[in-house]
Amino acid sequence: MRAWAVVETGKPLQEIELPTPEPTGAQVLLEVTHAGVCHSDLHIWEGEYDLGSRGKMRLTDRGVVLPLAMGHEIVGRVVKLGPEAAGQGTKVGDLRVVYPWVGCGKCAICARDEENMCLSPRSLGVYQNGGYATHVLASHVKHLIDIEGVDPALAATYACSGVTVYSAVNKLLPLDPDEPIVLVGAGGLGLNAIAILKALGHKRICAVDVDAKKLEAAKAQGATDTVLASAEGTTQRILEACGGPVAGVVDLVNGTQTSRFAFEALRKGGKLVQVGLFGGEMNIPLPLMPIRALTIQGSYVGNVKELRSLIDIAKQGKIPAIPVETTPQKNADAVLNRLKNGQITGRVVLVAA
Fold this sequence. Notes:
Elements: E1 2-5, E2 14-17, E3 28-36, H1 39-46, E4 48-50, E5 56-58, E6 73-81, E7 95-98, H2 108-111, E8 135-138, E9 144-146, H3 152-169, E10 181-184, H4 188-199, E11 205-209, H5 212-221, E12 225-228, H6 234-242, E13 246-251, H7 256-264, E14 266-274, H8 288-291, E15 295-298, H9 304-315, E16 324-328, H10 332-340, E17 347-351
Parallel strand pairs: 10-11, 10-13, 11-12, 13-14, 14-15, 16-17
Antiparallel strand pairs: 1-2, 3-6, 3-8, 3-17, 4-5, 6-7, 7-9
Helix pairs in contact: 3-4, 3-9
């Protein structure tokens, strides 16, 4: 199979040949038709995360091995089933979205279909080759979800962008539909979060970003309020837009500055859900945590049960589509550079030739 792989961190992706995997057990081999380019791919490509005063966390320290075909937002067509995958609702020729956040497959966490929480992760596009390739090996047939009636380019984004924000906003809900929820970041994640909140019946959505063009896209997607972030005064602008401190913030950027103004915007009993991997560190006045009964919670992607639920909602036509641009797989490196430079609104999805 061909892959557009990270061979050396921070260097251009290279088109290389890799052995086409042979499915065993309940594994399934798919020919990749669509692969979304996600902001977290930038961290894998660059090879590290910023931990603030603790320095950098290297991807090699997490067990990432190069060369690696990234890409975890994958739709593909089934070409071969492992012997244990036959008769489980998937057959050769089926088009499926692939759940990528897989674990060891053996522990109690994996048995509960909560593999994103497995202590021995094997995520596609991170620890195993993913969608920046002509083929991908799904770890188990249960990770394949039918997307009939959903645009496959859009469906690909649900495997990360969609399920990540679906899991995150559900950590805030239920709230009164007119209670403002603040979304920090109006990229692919932010636009999907707006779309999914609207699908879930939420009415008051405030988007925050440093890019006025992205805020325009957020407004078009259905955000009721927008706030242009800057080095100073962002919290006050959020309070003005929302009519006071808020019950919930989802920080899809999660950097030092965003965590500060997101925390400061919370009302008593409010919750900050941290999703993004921008990096840095957070300093908070500890007495305010109990005095104001605040919650800060991390949210890591989502589980396969949540992805199935999200796809079911999408099949009903309830989720407004976000802007999706498609481009051939061979352009993967150019797309990563555009994403790094903040030149993408919505999502770019790589498609097979």
